[in-house]
Specification:
Keywords: Cell projection, Cilium, Cilium biogenesis/degradation, Glycoprotein, Membrane, Transmembrane, Transmembrane helix, Vacuole. By secondary structure, the chain is mainly α. Helices cover 81% and strands 0% of the residues. The longest helix has 35 residues, at 73-107.
């Protein structure tokens, strides 16, 4: 049984890391497509889809654990609350930034004079992204721990 779980979670972990790499790449190089509105919309859409898929993957990982299936979801929530909240906040920041940039792009695609609020949002999103990457990768690696998929004593001790 462990071999099957290992293959399943190794592939899930691989896709989670791919989603993170795509997000990092788009964050790093999206400014190169500023001249083409279709390209920038496609890149932002791809980034948002990867964020949704990565959030779905971590939720899927949580739901497939023994701890969740035994009805102790609150234990998982306690362990993974901060990464889930950071992922949701990062997604909101990305959607806000992308929407504002696409709307602003229509007015002047090559102008790099952004309003101060857009510049602040850009800086906040970029500073928030390493925190998201770290917590998401740590959570994904934690979820591949076989202790979450077996009936162990730490679960019963956490209940008491």
């Amino acid at each position: 049984m462990f071999k099957l779980s290992y293959k399943r979670f190794a592939s899930l972990l691989f896709f989670q890391l791919v989603f993170l790499c795509v997000d990092l790449g788009i964050n790093s190089f999206s400014y190169l497509a500023r001249g083409d509105k279709v390209s920038i919309i496609f890149l932002f859409l791809a980034q948002d889809v990867c964020l949704i898929l990565s959030f779905t993957a971590i939720i899927f990982s949580l739901y497939s654990t023994y701890v969740y299936q035994a009805g102790m979801a609150h234990l998982l929530y306690e362990k993974f609350r901060v990464p889930l909240l950071v992922a949701m906040m990062y997604f909101i920041l990305c959607i806000s930034l992308h929407t504002w940039q696409v709307v602003d792009h229509h007015k002047s695609p090559y102008l790099f004079q952004w309003p101060k609020a857009l510049t602040a949002l850009f800086i906040i999103q970029r500073l928030f992204s390493p925190l998201y990457y770290y917590l998401y990768k740590r959570s994904a690696l934690k979820m591949s721990d076989p202790r979450f998929y077996e009936n162990l004593d730490w679960i019963t001790s956490a209940i008491k």
